[in-house]
């Protein structure tokens, strides 16, 4: 309709032009410069108006059909295939997705034949310039969706999405989710939130605002526009668990007034809000409780153990182990998580679902793998533990297995080298950057 | 300074008066009505100006001293004594406060001799028109402080504070704490929040907003103006506790996604925010974890067990017991709580502190006491339990005993009759109101 108005308006303008006082060089302007009735008369005569209308219809038809035309031209998909091969994954010509039996998620949506009304999806990813977010965006774009990233770049980096700049199906909005925003989309992946202790402790009050006001704003948006909303919660809602492994039914053991509480309690209340919007307003919601995840594009110095160890080993520094190194963690490779998030969003179950790799490693075992992968001469250095650091955590993922048909596929020994390639490049660039300055 | 300007301005006016065109009855006006230089000359001659200045100083001194003069005139205290005797407590001529050995809190502040600079305190009580808040306000006014109540009247009632209307040391602002407010005060008691399940479940998202944005706003205010801030948290932060009785060090057992979570998680995150403002911004904070409290001015039909039983027994209805009636609760009389809150605010310890009565009663025992007090023929009716209702809860108050020198004094058998008097009056008025309509 908009196009139609535009067309007809410009058509009218073209016809009226002669009647206005244009420069004397125009021969028509000599005739009778101010006679509007005569011009109108001219337009109405000899079916000129009818042809204008036909022109309008042709023009409008083109614009109305255009979206479905462009979605079937394969351009986006091809350009992504190219881009994927130069992303941070270090596996040129071979994408991480689609190699591990996830085909069913890759083909479901987006690429419909011309003429069938099933549009591709419009999806918002908040925090889409971050570690997990940028991998999720790659996957959604590759699948054929329109993706809008909302990010305030607190911990996110343009480098994580720069390969998508110029892709018409990708859009980046610099925006803080603490402020409301109005968009028209079908799905909202809500990831915006600093995820590592150094970052979320930096300004604890802001962390709570991001979790509460940010989640409120995105739930409000979902309610207003009827979008489906997915919250990326965290295994930290289990705190320092007294049950092991943790099932989704476990209520957790969290210190409400500690230095990590801004994140743990912030995420818990974000879950509460999500369920309240679901129960009270019928918003379609999904909740993922994400366990430790690693992979390319992680922050280099965010204090998370995998990135710490890898960066330290590459830089030939001793790997810092807090406490006695016997606390365990489970480590999930990022592409596994991305498939889990998409399976959850597309599925019929609200959750919460644990998304994590149940394979357990002590800090010392992890150090050993890093050593093997990067540098057999790497050493370990012990430091006292930080307050409230949970002793062990391991997901029970039977619910996700059963209801989402999902489970992680990539082992630490498979995943770590891919991350190391990315880290090595970035640390090298860092050093070169320093050297050339 | 303001007074000084005022004085001198009016002094000048008096002197200039003759020079303006006043009625001809003034003999001076006949001389030279418009000669300003001559008038000035007249003022400056014969030390007239000097005397004006002396007058200014005398006047200003009076106004500067006035606040401390009026605080020692005993007016406020007398009017409160009168008012207390007609409040909802049903004990005419005898106030609830000051009978149970709390003298030390009653005399500390406010009534200082003339000339000593120690002003009375300016105190904000958010939620001050509610059950607990209105009793706290009574106590603070009786002590001689200036009190500002902020309330949106969601569950509060004007009746609870109407006896203070017209008292110059009392002020009522209709305001929702979800919006920021700017005031100049010394202390902030932050109570604003619906406290009973029927009310906080009514709009769970609003309950979270009140707890998070409300607490943020009041902490922001405290930071800006350097006020001390007290949060009224709740025993609900312990959830359905696995430890019994609950110490302040217990992290709790709370369902993050249940129907009560808006309150439990909302209060937990309010505690987190409070501690983060303390750690990060040096705000002086206090945290009270309040256990079940009862007394006059409780809502009649708020679903809390004491008010339910009492109202039902007075109305000759069977008392509703949820579940098997064997879950226990501790019940604290409201004046005990008010003394605890003031002791906490005035003391040197941050908390959190449990404020509750450790005396444990099962629902069936409570029903028995109500029966004895109100109506020996009262009956009990059993209904299925509501979701997430904690099975038992009992405060360990040794920390408050030791550090605040506080413990509850009023037993259920003492406190219940006072509440019953108030409830009987209100239910009677209700019935009369209905009858006359
Ligand atoms: N990576 C993990 O191991 C892990 C584990 C559990 C949960 N999670 C959750 O997954 C999500 C993504 O984590 P990540 O590892 O990619 O972290 P990240 O820090 O790399 O990404 C977070 C992104 O959110 C953005 N952001 C932060 N605050 C924002 C705000 N107020 N407005 C707009 N954008 C904002 C950041 O700039 C960043 O791009 C987070 O919600 C996190 O809590 C991650
Ligand atoms: N009474 C108890 O047994 C108990 C137990 C634990 C904690 N508490 C806490 O003590 C405080 C007072 O409880 P109460 O029993 O007097 O409850 P109440 O409902 O009688 O009082 C709460 C007051 O806060 C006001 N209020 C609510 N939301 C507001 C908002 N957004 N802006 C401004 N005012 C608002 C209400 O109008 C009401 O006057 C609450 O914070 C409650 O959580 C009470």
From TrEMBL, chains A, B:
Spans through the membrane: 48-65
The protein's annotated pathway: Nucleotide-sugar biosynthesis; UDP-alpha-D-xylose biosynthesis; UDP-alpha-D-xylose from UDP-alpha-D-glucuronate: step 1/1
Enzyme class: lyase
Domain NAD(P)-binding: from-to ranges: 125-419
Major place of residence: Golgi
Pfam families assigned to the protein according to its UniProt record, in alphabetical order: GDP_Man_Dehyd
A GO molecular-function annotation: UDP-glucuronate decarboxylase activity
Keyword tags: Decarboxylase, Golgi apparatus, Lyase, Membrane, NAD, Transmembrane, Transmembrane helix
InterPro entries listed in its UniProt record: NAD(P)-bd_dom, NAD(P)-bd_dom_sf, UXS-like
UniProt entry tagged with the keyword Membrane: yes
Compositionally biased tracts (Polar residues): 1-10
Cofactor: NAD(+)
Membrane topology recorded in Swiss-Prot or TrEMBL: Single-pass type II membrane protein
Chain residue ranges for the region called Disordered: 1-32
CDD domains registered for this protein in UniProt: UGD_SDR_e
GO cellular component terms, A-Z: Golgi cisterna membrane
Subcellular location as annotated: Golgi apparatus, Golgi stack membrane
Biological process according to GO: D-xylose metabolic process; UDP-D-xylose biosynthetic process
Enzyme nomenclature, EC number: 4.1.1.35
Similarity section: Belongs to the NAD(P)-dependent epimerase/dehydratase family. UDP-glucuronic acid decarboxylase subfamily.
Function: Catalyzes the NAD-dependent decarboxylation of UDP-glucuronic acid to UDP-xylose. Necessary for the biosynthesis of the core tetrasaccharide in glycosaminoglycan biosynthesis.
Classification via PANTHER family: UDP-GLUCURONIC ACID DECARBOXYLASE 1, UDP-GLUCURONIC ACID DECARBOXYLASE-RELATED
Protein name: UDP-glucuronate decarboxylase
Organism for this UniProt entry: Genlisea aurea
């Amino acid at each position: 309709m908009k196009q139609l108005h535009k067309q007809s308006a410009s058509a009218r303008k073209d016809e009226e032009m002669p009647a206005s006082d244009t420069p004397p060089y125009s021969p028509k302007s000599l005739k009778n410069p101010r006679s509007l009735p005569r011009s109108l008369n001219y337009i109405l005569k000899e079916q000129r108006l009818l042809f204008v209308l036909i022109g309008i219809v042709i023009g409008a038809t083109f614009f109305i059909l255009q979206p479905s035309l462009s979605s079937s031209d394969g351009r986006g998909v091809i350009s992504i295939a190219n881009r994927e091969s130069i992303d941070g994954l270090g596996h040129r010509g071979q994408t991480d997705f689609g190699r591990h039996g996830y085909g069913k998620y890759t083909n479901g949506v987006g690429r419909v034949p011309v003429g069938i009304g099933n549009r591709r999806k419009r999806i918002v990813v908040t925090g889409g310039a971050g570690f997990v977010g940028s991998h999720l965006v790659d996957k959604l774009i590759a699948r054929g969706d329109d993706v809008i990233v909302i990010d305030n770049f607190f911990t996110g980096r343009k480098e994580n999405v720069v390969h998508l700049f110029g892709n018409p199906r990708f859009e980046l909005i610099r925006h803080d989710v603490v402020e409301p925003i109005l968009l028209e989309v079908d799905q909202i992946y809500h990831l915006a939130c600093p995820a590592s202790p150094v970052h979320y402790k930096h300004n604890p009050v802001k962390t709570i605002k991001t979790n509460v006001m940010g989640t409120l704003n995105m739930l409000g948006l979902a309610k207003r526009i009827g979008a489906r909303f997915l919250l990326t919660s965290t295994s930290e809602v289990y705190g320092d668990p007294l049950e092991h492994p943790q099932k989704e039914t476990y209520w957790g053991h969290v210190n409400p007034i500690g230095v990590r509480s801004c994140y743990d309690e912030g995420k818990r209340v974000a879950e509460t809000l999500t369920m309240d919007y679901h129960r009270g307003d019928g918003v379609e919601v999904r909740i993922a409780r994400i366990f430790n995840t690693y992979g390319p594009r992680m922050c280099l110095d965010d204090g998370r153990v995998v990135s710490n160890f890898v960066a330290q080993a590459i830089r030939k520094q001793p790997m810092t182990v807090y406490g006695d190194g016997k606390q365990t963690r489970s480590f999930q490779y990022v592409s596994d998580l991305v498939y889990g998030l998409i399976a959850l969003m597309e599925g019929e179950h609200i959750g919460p679902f644990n998304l994590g790799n149940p394979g357990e490693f002590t800090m010392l075992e992890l150090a050993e793998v890093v050593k093997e992968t990067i540098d057999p001469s790497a050493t370990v250095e012990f430091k006292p533990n930080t307050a409230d650091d949970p002793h062990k955590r391991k997901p029970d993922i039977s619910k996700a297995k059963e209801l989402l048909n999902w489970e992680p596929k990539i082992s630490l020994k498979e995943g770590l080298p891919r991350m190391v390639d990315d880290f090595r490049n970035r640390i090298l660039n860092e050093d070169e950057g320093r050297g050339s300055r």
